[in-house]
Write a structure and sequence with these properties.
With 156 residues, the protein is α+β, with helices and mostly antiparallel strands. A 5-stranded mixed β-sheet has the order 2-4-5-7-6. A two-stranded antiparallel sheet has the order 1-3. The chain has 3 helices and 7 strands; from the N terminus they run βαββαββαββ. The protein is globular and about 55 Å long. Helix 1 packs across helix 2. It binds adenosine-5'-triphosphate and magnesium ion. The site of adenosine-5'-triphosphate has 19 residues, from helix 2 and helix 3. It comes from Novispirillum itersonii.
Length: 156
């Protein structure tokens, strides 16, 4: 389906609902983003999972930053938090099934969320990577999706 990424972000945020009530969610979007051709249910699930991780691993009252942009070929969505971050040696392994960073934070989970997210993104021809957060603080999860060359309603 042809969808507008901001609508998907809003839907994921709405679905997270009260899970996000203790965090500040700051969304920075360009005035207009080209439509993307994705499965909206699956991409919403990815955004939901990334928001859920951000609020789960970052302390309450911290800020979760959602940023999107594009360069004409690739659409980028970054979800950054101010939590403990993901150590460089784990930034690839967190996408493995059941892998969880060993921490004493007592947060429960199956370790499947990011593996599922990467599967969905890969099926769309995109990439999903972990990096350090803004100014080296926390984690950033970076989603890149290829942009189609033709968009309905826009003459070539
Ligand atoms: P679930 O399957 O319920 O999502 P989970 O959150 O443990 O369980 P993933 O979402 O796959 O599993 O994340 C894997 C691991 O990566 C987490 O256990 C956590 O250690 C680490 N991680 C993921 N997101 C973040 C984040 N934003 N900040 C810090 N660590 C993170
Ligand atoms: Mg998770």
């Amino acid at each position: 389906d042809w969808v507008d990424l901001p609508d998907i972000i809003e839907a994921a945020r709405r679905r997270a609902g009260r899970l996000l009530e203790r965090h500040t969610v700051r969304i920075t979007l360009p005035p207009a983003l080209p439509l993307i051709c994705v499965d909206p249910v699956l991409i919403e699930q990815v955004v939901f999972n990334l928001l859920d991780n951000a609020r789960k691993y970052a302390p309450p009252d911290s800020t979760i930053t959602v940023w999107a942009g594009h360069d004409g070929q690739t659409l980028t969505l970054e979800i950054s938090d101010q939590g403990p971050g993901i150590p460089p040696e784990d930034r690839e392994r967190v996408f493995d099934m059941f892998y969880r960073v060993d921490r004493n934070d007592r947060q429960s989970g199956t370790g499947l969320g990011l593996a599922i997210c990467r599967g969905i993104v890969t099926a769309h021809g995109g990439t999903l990577q972990a990096d350090s957060g803004l100014n080296g603080v926390g984690a950033s999860l970076i989603l890149r999706l290829p942009m189609p060359e033709t968009v309905p309603g826009v003459p070539a």
